[in-house]
Every structure is written in structure tokens, then in C-alpha cells.
Amino acid sequence: MDQSKILLESGTNEVEILEFYLGEQAFGVNVLKIQAIEQFDPARLTTIHLAPPSVMGSLLFRNECLTLIDLRVCLDTGDPRNLPAAQGEDDEDGETPQPLVMVLEFNDRRTAFLVDGVDRIHRVGWDSITPLSPYLNQPDTKFTGSLNINDREIMLVDLEKVVAEVLPGELAALAVPEETSEEMRALRGGRLIFLADDSPTVREMLLGELAHGGYTNVQLFSNGRECLEAVKALAAEAEEKDLALEGLLGGLITDIEMPSMDGLALCRTIRQDLGLADLPVIVFSSLINAQIARKCEQVGATDYISKPQFSSLVRYLDRYVLMREDALV
């Protein structure tokens, strides 16, 4: 079935989560990423020789060939599916179980994921989503948080991490080249950059890519709320020292999907509540499309760019951070 997108007002800190399941465990994904949900048709699948266990093959979807990933393998909830056997197995009611395919679009590409079924859409505030504990919030985790609905825990899946593990070559092609100019490295390294992203994988990856380009003074935050409090503290310090905040903080990079406070709400709060009209805020998200671009503009983002365009992100920082007059004095 096609997923009609439900528009939310920009910067309200709300999100719609589609609940799907693998076995008896519930998982969640942002509705904005979903292009379609339909029954799995083995006749449209072409297996790929020597593919990883989680990659079932290439699925024909509307005249386009998509990589089909078995999420229950990626998330360690079951063994790889045996398609011929699965087609002949019956459930308790004597009917053949029918897995579903979720077609998602993020990071400027479409990818298909096989799941056991879907339940419903939950409209919630990002502040109702619980971030992972520090023990679980590690670079190798495949989750970004959890949502409690009627005493059921729904784990939010870090699909960027899943795809990065399955298709690592695509990220390598977008890497930032090592900056060799000592003058440029000094300019970039002299500006403090705040980076808010709930994915440990993306934070560590971005930290390394920005460092390749010379942006080495980067402070990391796992959600928008933590980043906002740091901006407030730095703004208070600047006021106490009779300085412009932009003299202390070069710019801010933020994801959109984050527990506690999302990136759009963070940007809106910085502009409207804190009155920081000149602070460069770049939205770096896997969700960027025409609809999300309008939302970014509505909340006052300086610019926006789709993950994982790392090299372009460095150019954006140069444009909005280094070319500011106060950054060059």
C-alpha cells in the first residue's frame, strides 16, 4: 500500500512513527521515509551471488531495481529466510505467512526492507522518545531510542547504520578529501562547530570526515535538547563578556530525527525564542526532499543538505562560517 504523507507543522517537535514487527518484537520508523508498503512477491526478486546474509537480492519495484534487506537478520531477530521453505510453511490457521516489503527513501536513495508485518502509525512528540542509555548508545548499535506505547516498547531503528553496514562502498565515495593547506586547516580548525545527531554511527563518521577537511573543533550532542542547552550557555557567556555569540560559535549542524527535541524544533527555538538570527544552522538529514526543504526554510535554517554528502557539508561550512566577517577577524 502507498503511504500518504501526513504533514506536520514545522518545528512542533512531533513525529509520526510507523510500528512494524519482526516476530513478536515491535520496531519503529519515521513515516516520512516510507514510500510504499506491499506484500512480498518472490517472483520479482533476483538473488545476488555472494551477497551478505542480510541482502536477499534485487527487488523489482515500479520499474526500478532496489536492494532488498531482511531486517530480521540485520537486527538479530532470526536467521536468513529460506524462500522456498517459507512459501510452503503454514501458520496456525493454515494460511501461508506473508511477509511485507517496506520501501523507504532516505540518503537520496530508495531501499527495500523485508519485515513480518506492520501495525499502526503513532503520532508522538520527540520528547516522549527515550534516548538509548549511555551503555547502549555505542557506534555499533542499530537503534536510536525507544517509544513506550501501552506498556509496549517500540525500538526505533537506525536505518542509516543498517544500510552503511550493508553498502559501505557508497559512503567511501562521498568521503572528504584530506585538506593539505595549513592556512585553510587553521581557519577551519579555529571555529567551534556544534553537531547534533542521535546516531552514534553518524556522529563518529561526521567527526572523522570534518576532521579530514580541517574542522577539528567540533562538539557533539546526541539530541537537540542537549545542543540547545549548550547554545544557551554559550550565549550567556558571550553576553557576560560583551561579545557576539558568533564570535564564540562558528555554526551548528543538526539532524532532524532526534529524541527529546528534533532538529526543526531546535532551529525554530534558536531563531524565535533565543533571537539568534545570524547563527549559521545547517540541517544535515537523510529526510531532505522538497517537502522537508520547505520546513527547513520555515524554521529559519540557513541551509540544508542530504546525508551523506560529507564533502558538500564542508563547502557549506566554508560558505556560512568562514566567509562571515566576524569569523575572519
Question: Could you explain how this protein is built, in words?
Answer:
The protein has 329 residues and is of the alpha/beta class. It has two domains: 14-167, CheA-289, Domain 4 (OB fold (Dihydrolipoamide Acetyltransferase, E2P), Beta Barrel); 177-322, 3-Layer(aba) Sandwich (Rossmann fold). It has helices at 71-74, 83-88, 159-166, 168-172, 182-189, 200-213, 224-240, 245-248, 263-273, 290-298, 310-322; strands at residues 14-22, 25-30, 34-39, 45-46, 55-61, 64-70, 100-106, 109-115, 117-125, 130-131, 143-149, 152-157, 193-196, 218-221, 251-254, 281-285, 303-306. Strands 9-1-2-12-11-10 form a six-stranded mixed beta sheet, with no helix packed on it. Strands 3-7-8-6-5-4 form a six-stranded mixed beta sheet. Strands 14-13-15-16-17 form a five-stranded parallel beta sheet, with helices on both faces. Helix 7 (224-240) packs parallel to helix 9 (263-273). The N and C termini lie far apart (56 Å).
Task: Please give a quick description of this structure.
With 329 residues, the chain is of the alpha/beta class. The chain is built from eleven helices and 17 strands.
